[in-house]
Amino acid sequence: MHVSIYKTVSVLSCGWLGESLAIDLLDKGFIVKGATTSQDKKERLLEKGIDAYQLRFEDLNDAMKSFLNSDILVLNLTIKDLELYRQFLPVLEQSPVKKLILISSTGVYQNSAKPVDENSELSESVWVSIENLMKDNPNYQTTILRFSGLFGGNRKPGNFLSGRSVQNGEAPVNLIHRDDCIQIINEIIKQDVWEECFNCTADTHPSKKEFYTRAAKLIEVPLPIFDEKEGNPSSFKLITNEKLKRRLNYEFIHADLLDSLSL
Fold first, then answer.
1. Where are its TM segments located (predicted)?
2. Strand, coil or helix: what is 231?
3. For residue 262, is it within any domain?
4. What is the pTM for the complete model shown?
């Protein structure tokens, strides 16, 4: 069982990543609250032992306050409406939550010819604004996890670019398996690591052409078509995970992206 000073974790929301995370946390002995917009999903979560709530992000009501009666909040949303985060913030500040894990994206960085670490130049992504709004708050401590593209389970990389015309085939791929996302979140909680920001991406960065061609062949779908004549060869970035591995002493479950395709 997971040994932690924290007892309750709320996961907003329980989608493709969040549901698997909630189940994993439950298995490790946490009391887990999970939010979903779907009544069917709520029933499924309840059956698995998760304290499930049917909530939208903008539902700033008693149910949301009950959901936020927790030690830790994992804010795992694809919503990019900054105003909704502004409206949510006072409710979070007034809640018992003392630790926030904010799931962000390596899309916050500008393209770069140099490897991209946590101090690299940021883009004008809305995620930058969301991070800035939510962090450095006296009411709770935040750790930001910037995930690269997610895969695993039924999310097969072979489908991502299948049959599409693709430029910059030699650009490096930045992806992370769902298993690693879940384990990294567990390590943040277990090791009590807060007020940090980490890039979360696999160790290897094969080219788009090599990776997605192999991925499509493995699941027997149409191959991507790589246009070698067009595109900007410098319009890419290679995300480094060195800080994460060093700070958490973390070893990736799926470190090699090409090897992970055959699992």
1. none
2. coil
3. no
4. 0.96
